[in-house]
Write a structure and sequence with these properties.
It is a single chain. The chain has helices at residues 2-16, 19-23, 27-48, 61-76, 96-115, 148-151, 166-174, and strands at residues 80-84, 121-128, 132-140, 180-187, 190-198. By secondary structure, it is an alpha+beta fold. A five-stranded mixed beta sheet has the order 1-2-3-5-4, with helices on one face. Strand 2 and strand 3 (132-140) form a beta hairpin. The radius of gyration is 21 Å and the shape is elongated. The protein starts with a helix and ends with a strand.
Length: 199
């Protein structure tokens, strides 16, 4: 995010780097400089813009910390993350540690699954409803799709032995609450998790 801010701050200097080519009417040199330096820089900055500004709408510091770290981890693995948090999220009726654990499990699974797909992409959305907060996490999925009920069994994993604790832990966390629901579905190679927490 700081790199994007620095780029915006320095863009006048970047534009000035073209001025001597224009002064000399050196269109060939200008074209080469633009394609070699400026275009590649803008593409790199575009890849780095993972919508961290929208995370500012999360007003719960612990939750913002988990989301920020997971988005940066996804970026480091080459996974594009689209964030949709259009309204301030100021309150969620769930113990903050349990909420951070639950969201961490869902995002970790989305990141792991996305690493194995040709188009690496995750979508994260928070929706303020009248009586609840909905958290939607979507990622692409490749390979055979197991029955959904199997995903939540202790020890079951699509990633080999000695795994499969994440979603069973998630189920255990959510079982402590009577105001939460988790809807899991597959649609067109997309794995969709919707966690709703009633106020």
């Amino acid at each position: 995010y700081n790199e994007i801010r620095k780029f915006k701050h320095d863009y006048i200097n970047i534009l000035l780097s073209m001025s001597e080519y224009i002064e000399q009417n050196d269109m060939k040199g200008l074209k080469n400089h633009f394609e070699s330096n400026i275009l590649s820089l803008s593409k790199d900055i575009g890849k780095r813009d993972f919508n961290l500004d929208l995370i500012q709408n999360i007003k719960i510091p612990e939750l913002k910390g988990v989301i920020s770290s997971k988005v940066i981890a996804a970026y480091d693995k080459g996974i594009n993350t689209h964030i949709d948090i259009l309204e301030p999220i100021e309150y969620v009726s769930m113990d903050i540690i349990d909420l951070c654990r639950a969201l961490g499990i869902l995002l970790d699974n989305a990141i792991e699954a996305s690493e194995k797909t040709s188009i690496k992409s995750i979508e994260l959305g928070f929706i303020n409803k009248r009586n609840s907060v909905m958290i939607v996490i979507t990622n692409l999925y490749s390979g055979d799709i197991p029955p959904i009920f199997k995903l939540y069994e202790n020890g079951f994993s699509t990633k080999g032995g000695n795994r499969g604790l994440g979603l069973s832990n998630l189920k255990e966390i959510l079982s402590l609450y009577n105001n939460t629901s988790l809807d899991t579905s597959f649609e067109n190679d997309k794995f969709i998790q919707i966690l709703e927490i009633k106020n």
